[in-house]
């Protein structure tokens, strides 16, 4: 069994939080005592030249329907639902598109956990490595090996499909309670 790191950092857009994200978060939490969860594209209107070269859908407004606060609440509910104490995690903005700002939100001496599925993941790995932080890749998978994506979740919601089994039950409750399906269906 590997020794736990004191502080770990994990990041993602979490648009919305699905079961694949939960797997990612729980694996990161297993590896550290305290997990800092960074939400990327936290203003919803990031214009990142690197992203646009690699993966343009991440910048589309329909790919970013949830606010920073809504995503924070979904992450919080999911982790609490898994029995993780709130004192063991913190949720912050994570401006990967402006790397020189990262250390305003996360400590440089933490271990940065990530997964890689595509060129955007490889680009983020390089960005973090170039900053001199300790990056630990938890797994690298092909896009076909990805169990679910935010795009699939949003598409399923927009089409009125059975989306609740794609997310933790606490997240389904949050989305329904705040009538967020309508926003996705309307493309806003």
From TrEMBL:
GO terms for molecular function: nucleotidyltransferase activity. It comes from the Bacteria. Keywords: Nucleotidyltransferase, Transferase. Residues 10-155 form the Cytidyltransferase-like domain. The keyword Isomerase does not apply. InterPro entries: Cyt_trans-like, Rossmann-like_a/b/a_fold. Signal peptide: none annotated. SUPFAM superfamilies: Nucleotidylyl transferase (SSF52374). This is Cytidyltransferase-related domain protein. The lineage of its organism: Bacteria, Pseudomonadati, Spirochaetota, Spirochaetia, Spirochaetales.
């Amino acid at each position: 069994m590997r020794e736990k790191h004191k502080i770990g950092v994990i990041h993602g857009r979490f648009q919305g939080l699905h079961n694949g994200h939960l797997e990612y978060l729980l694996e990161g939490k297993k590896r550290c005592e305290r997990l800092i969860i960074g939400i990327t594209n936290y203003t919803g209107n990031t214009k990142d030249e690197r992203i646009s070269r690699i993966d343009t859908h991440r910048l589309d407004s329909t790919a970013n329907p949830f606010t920073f606060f809504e995503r924070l609440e979904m992450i919080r509910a999911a982790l609490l639902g898994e029995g993780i104490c709130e004192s063991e995690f913190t949720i912050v903005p994570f401006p990967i598109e402006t790397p020189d700002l990262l250390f305003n939100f996360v400590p440089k001496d933490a271990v940065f956990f990530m997964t890689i599925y595509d060129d955007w993941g490889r680009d983020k790995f390089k960005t973090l490595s170039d900053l001199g932080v300790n990056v630990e890749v938890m797994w690298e998978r092909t896009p076909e090996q990805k169990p679910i994506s935010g795009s699939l979740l949003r598409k399923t919601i927009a089409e009125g499909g059975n989306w609740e089994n794609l997310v933790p039950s606490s997240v389904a409750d949050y989305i329904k309670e705040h009538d967020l399906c309508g926003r996705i269906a309307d493309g806003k």
